[in-house]
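Re-running the complex after MR caught last week's input typo. The corrected sequence lines follow. Everything else is unchanged.
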Amino acid sequence: MMVIPEYIKKLVPYKSGKPIDELAREKGLTRIVKLASNENPLGPSPMALEAIKAGVNDLHRYTDPGCFQLLQKLSTAYKLPADQIFPASGSDAIIQYIVAAFSEAGDELLSSAGTFIGWGVNVAKLGRKMVNVPLMNYNYDLDGILNKITEKTRIIYIANPNNPTGMLIGKTEFDSFLNKVPENVLVVYDEAYHLYASQNANYPDGLSYLNRENVLVLRTFSKSYGLAGLRVGVAFGNAELIQMLTKTRLPFEPNQLAQLAVLAAMDDIGFLQKTLEVHNASMKMLCSKFDELGMLYTHSASNFTMLLFANEEIANQFHSMCLDNGLILRGLASFGIPNGVRINSGTIEETVFALEVISRVHKSITEKQLIQ
Amino acid sequence: MMVIPEYIKKLVPYKSGKPIDELAREKGLTRIVKLASNENPLGPSPMALEAIKAGVNDLHRYTDPGCFQLLQKLSTAYKLPADQIFPASGSDAIIQYIVAAFSEAGDELLSSAGTFIGWGVNVAKLGRKMVNVPLMNYNYDLDGILNKITEKTRIIYIANPNNPTGMLIGKTEFDSFLNKVPENVLVVYDEAYHLYASQNANYPDGLSYLNRENVLVLRTFSKSYGLAGLRVGVAFGNAELIQMLTKTRLPFEPNQLAQLAVLAAMDDIGFLQKTLEVHNASMKMLCSKFDELGMLYTHSASNFTMLLFANEEIANQFHSMCLDNGLILRGLASFGIPNGVRINSGTIEETVFALEVISRVHKSITEKQLIQ
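Corrected-run output:
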């Protein structure tokens, strides 16, 4: 018999928002709207698609492991030297390399319960010790996290806005937190929802902290540029940290089409503007209907919000009745918030459909509770 | 100052075959032929390209983490249950997950010097102890490897044919080796060049060993299907091993276009036949010219062969003079064979060009040696 480490046996397979295909197979539905995975409802940047179609003939070649052209482009766009930039196959991959490069067996990695599950999965699969502080008012308890720092703590992970609650940490609070973190502890600051959050004047922009030697900032092209299926994210940090990450990365990532897509998408400024317009309109519709129905939800700075129910049973019932009606939302038991259900903004058409379904399901559940 | 593990600091960045773009930038050359990375000279499967173009509009969606359609297709094609199949972002990624899932800090991982560097890189970056047995006649010394097994040995890696030497381990020899490996040691059997090697009747087909609980077989779509730039490889093994790998994989891999490309490419049988025809013709041209010139090379069962020079200096000179003339080959110092240079088969046109350059460079080096 093979010897398999105990922490590997205990890993729980990742469960994402249900793919549209899967629901269609299971229920035979024709009209399905998915607002479960914080995807960009406009689809991918059209300029990215043209670049992909133009580049397919070279797919038999391995990608340049130095990502020369991509780094040049990112360097110009973000006004940073190329040696402070690390592109890889999405934030999940980047987190995996961060855990591998900056911690060893026995080290403690610190974060919050109720945050991005990609963090926890990658900590667990390398057998590191995960220390999680409970959420406070659905946001990070930064003082609680500071109190848990020990001499074994190597990395702290903060997603701002937090996923799945959408709550924002403000600039003053985050500055004060960073000032109290010891210099030998790495802070991973995940700005996956930067496009949406930076509409808020109080949002602490990660790139303003790169003078600190212990900060890595994460961004992604999955959401704002509509390229989730291609897998590409970027980390920014001081050159020594980035050098270590580059040495642990797989040799040929991001894949060739992902690199071409990002090169083109970064020029597509109009697409980002349209993305924000549609998001803002949809989120306004969602929140005003939730208010009207008297549903509880978090005041999110991101492209999603979290609905809160009295208990896990009602949350599951709501989630499952939405599925029956062709609306895919995200149940949050695996995030540690079993009474929460996450919904992201959509096109106006998708939002109208979603709110019709939600109103019906909400009414049905409320009536059933009154009868009981 | 951040605490960075010593084994991370020591990692050497991966150096691939020089990309065509890079050589063009450096030397201002217009005609460049790359036979350095064992790529398919025919380009990607045309059926795969059509599938990619048809699938780009959904790139804003995350890929199905269960790889439902891809697994169905692979299951039918390889006549194996889906739970014995593990697709991921290329063999490099698969090796990374194997090391993470089936070994811990302090364990010994066993292989050969002068084999695929993707193995060594992934062992080193997770801080495992690498034990390498020297090559014997440019092939694995299987008895030497068996002799190095200790109670700390967890995994043995064998690439057949070996990369970069191209040497084949025959069926009888491999069977006898597997019979002597303890049941609690995992054998990773890398068949990246299966298409080419299986023309040899004596080639031990990996899928015939899946009744063993300690064997994982690796295949790739990078070479035979011309999809290196998209990143997709597959591991086969017993269901328990595959389950552990699935739990350690990143949630959304292979990327969406890679999955669509493979779904289509697997129906493109004509492409594989043409690939073999061109390869066989090119390899015949290469070997007969090398014989004519009196150059030493390995008798490879793969889509590449290794040229051998008197010493590292001459190998470097040869490699660098080929570059100056627009021919990219692969120097093998990083593989631990500093007097070797690897060349893969190309189209007939590429092969003619390559042999012209090689003849000229060989003549020039030989004359210089005579004068000295």
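None of the earlier attempt is carried over here. Chain A is about 40% helix and 15% strand. Chain A touches chain B through 87 residues (CB under 8 Å).
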